[in-house]
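Quarterly update from the structural biology core.
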Amino acid sequence: MGRDRVLTDFARVINSDRYQYTESDIFLMEKMESKEAVFDMYFRKTEDGGFAVVSGIQEVIELIEILNKTSEEEKRRYFSEIIEEEHLLEYLVKMKFTGDLYAMRDGEIVYPNEPILTIKAPLIQAKILETPILNLMNMQLAIATKASRITRAAYPIPVSSFGSRRAHGFDSAVTGTKASIIGGCLSHSNLVTEYRYKVPSVGTMAHSFIQAFGVGAKAEKEAFDTFIKHRRERKANSLVLLIDTYNTIGIGLKNAIQSFKDNGIDDSYKGNYGVRIDSGDLAYLSKKCRFELDQAGFKKAKIFLTNSLNESLIKSLKEQGACVDIFGVGDAIAVSKSNPCFGGVYKIVEIDEKPVIKLSEDVIKISNPGFKEVYRLYDKDEFAYADLITLVNNDQDKETLLNGQDLMIRDEKYEFKSSVLKSGEYSYKKLTCEFVKNGIINDNASKLEDVIGSRNYYLKSLEKLSEERKRLENPHQYKVDLSKDLRDLKYDLIKEIKSQIN
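Predicted structure, tokenized:
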């Protein structure tokens, strides 16, 4: 227990797999440590065949900051316990990150095989960051993307994320909640997320609060009155009463209405007030509650629905005409319950300015070589039309795009699937942004500290997608094309390798 308690932020940097350090030892002995490597982090598919939402770039940048600011003494304290090779130990103790980090920002909409994050650095520096980066990014991408699905299903009704108790540990609860906000959730319940990211937390009450006053209708009424008395003038003046502890309509709703009346709470109240239902037939019960609340003159009272909700259940509740002002979603978001393992990968694509490629019997696992960046193209109506992945250097399509000339984009697999964007009839945005140069974090990173700003960026990007591409089931395929030079490079490398097969 003692050793566990002294783990510091630097432990996040070495939260790694052994093979990365085994390989680094070999690179060092072969004097390969200074070779400049380029690694891409990307994913191959999503749960629904559509897009994902980026979250986690802020924490990756923090990893680099931690690596560079940690003292040699502290590094030695950790590495000496796990690294046997003396020459590797000395290298790691003195090592700082001196490379570059390029990425799409938190809140960006991203598609399969697009480089979300690119590390360009000396080989060992880039190599040992593989698992820490994937550990951070896969969890947050999964949660932000699931939050996106659920909030799109709920729209225009807002969603509150409150799954910390079901999350997979401390970091998952805190940064996962942050990812859910970026993915579209209006509010959350986690205190440390509020502390770290300055996004206020909210909450109602638990059944145990009511039970603490005893059993039955009288005890519940006392609990409601006490809650209102102490919370009505607080800064977070939300008086939402949980009404399903004993009987939702026969006891809970009646007590809630009477407590509001007895305590002078009505539609003139400046804060939020209302009821939460956490069990039973939510569609039926919510309609009954809305009718009774309206009859009692509480037309502004909110109805908060919870209970193992996900996008399918939310869609069903809306189709049934459920009366709801906010959905509360827990584990479906907190652990991305239907798709808990996001398949992000981290692959080398260039070494000493020479592009490299990975082939596979599974076509989906063939990598795109070279140092790349991504552009989003918009049609004349300002809707996202396609994404174009280009080489950073010496790419003719990139030059054509930047000069606003006629641009042909082509499907990688089907040559006949091509289209020409006429000069003056399209616009573009570069999605790839530089956050770290030569080990120095630049001002672009400060944008990521504003989590609400990242959510707003995502929501504005979502408005630029057609309805067909936003649907949750069988979304219309979005074009993600390789530039001609990148495609030629890829297939030239494939031909070169194939020629070596007997």
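The mean pLDDT is 95.
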